[in-house]
Amino acid sequence: AGGPLIKDLVEIFSACAIGSSMAGASVSLVDFFEDAIDTFSQDRNSDPLTDKKGADAGFEAPSKRLLAAFCALGPPVILAYAFPDIFLVALEEAGLIGGVSLYGILPALSLLSLRHSACTTVDTPDLKMPGRFGGGDTTLYALAGVSSLLVIPEVIRFGSMSVS
């Protein structure tokens, strides 16, 4: 269906999509670790906004970037070499657990937290939030509960798996 040229183009497109996704995730993770190194290398008594040395007080930029890259990319590479067949299993598990957590549990808990913090900080009892989720807190608790019920058996099953 389409011949060898279409097949080759689809493979090239797939490789580019995976590569660009991995590159973006890798760069953002390295930047995250670089910021964490900045945070932990600062003197706890100094103010980073007024301190002229700033966040680079503990490390020079190239060594900090190299350490951040090792912290971000080292553990996945080591795991991939130690357990070459674990990638697809981890991807399958992270797909369900990560997706349900990211799109089910976290938004519900975030909205509940926002609603309760808004009620305690604002004196207006009839505060209307834009885009309010229908059903009130009951629906949010139900969403978090159903999402948790989907994830819990997978977490238990994942925890009881043996890597061989």
From TrEMBL:
Membrane topology: Multi-pass membrane protein
Protein name: Uncharacterized protein
Keyword NADP: no
GO biological process, one term: amino acid transmembrane transport
Swiss-Prot/TrEMBL keywords: Cell inner membrane, Cell membrane, Membrane, Transmembrane, Transmembrane helix, Transport
Pfam family, one: Trp_Tyr_perm
Organism of derivation: Minutocellus polymorphus
Localisation: Cell inner membrane
Annotated Gene Ontology cellular component terms: plasma membrane
Major location category of this protein: membrane
